[in-house]
Amino acid sequence: MSRVGFPPDILRRVRVIFYSPGNVQITRKSLCIAGILPLNSLKQSKIRSAISVPIYLNQRKSAWNSQTESDVKNASLVMETIMTNNNGKVPTLKASSCTGSSTNSKCDIYDGNEVTVSDGVTIVITATAGAGTYTVEGTNSNNTGCKNYVYNSANGSVSSTDHKDLVAKQD
């Protein structure tokens, strides 16, 4: 055991993490920040909140991404239903773009076939009347770090791109 009563292997890991020379004082606070000791051993709530806030924000962004992807998949199911009722062809759509809000989440795209869009999500359906394929693109305005999702009926898959890539493409 050395200095503060920690085994030498932990002290070596801390020095590597902090790039510190051997004469630096190793404290419980530095060990908690390094992730070597559990956070509940540290009594300073400022450190806990500094760590938990970014985690919370990432969870929100992940939820927004899931919302957008789900809305794109649901819109593709509505489009498949519409095409089935029209001999496999895309009819002239009543609406090709839908934006969800807290007051209105439904959008009639063709003959009573509605797409439900979450708050902050915009769905754009690109299709040519009479064609057999289409794309559904979803974006989320809640955070610029969110991903954009595109469903392509030609291959039946959903792909994602970073929001900043789409914004750069539109400029």
Can you put this structure into words, describing what you see?
It is elongated, with a radius of gyration of 25 Å. Strand 4 and strand 5 form a beta hairpin. The N and C termini lie far apart (61 Å). 39% of the residues lie in helices and 22% in strands. By secondary structure, it is of the alpha+beta class.
Unreliable stretches (pLDDT < 50, length at least 5) are 14-24, 165-171
Portion in helices: 25-40%
Shape: elongated
First CA to last CA: what distance? 61 Å
**Rg from C-alpha positions?**
25 Å
The portion of residues forming beta strands comes to 15-25%
Strand order, biggest sheet? Answer: 1-4-5-6-7
Topology:
Elements lengths: L7 H11 L9 H6 L11 H41 L11 E3 L6 E5 L2 E4 L4 E7 L6 E7 L6 E6 L4 E6 H8 L1
Antiparallel strand pairs: 1-4, 2-3, 4-5, 5-6, 6-7
How would you briefly describe this protein structure?
By secondary structure, the protein is of the alpha+beta class. Helices cover 39% and strands 22% of the residues. It has helices spanning 8-18, 28-33, 45-85, 163-170; strands at 97-99, 106-110, 113-116, 121-127, 134-140, 147-152, 157-162.
Task: Provide tags for this entry.
five-stranded antiparallel beta sheet, 4 helices, elongated, two-stranded antiparallel sheet, alpha+beta, 171 residues, disordered C terminus, 7 strands
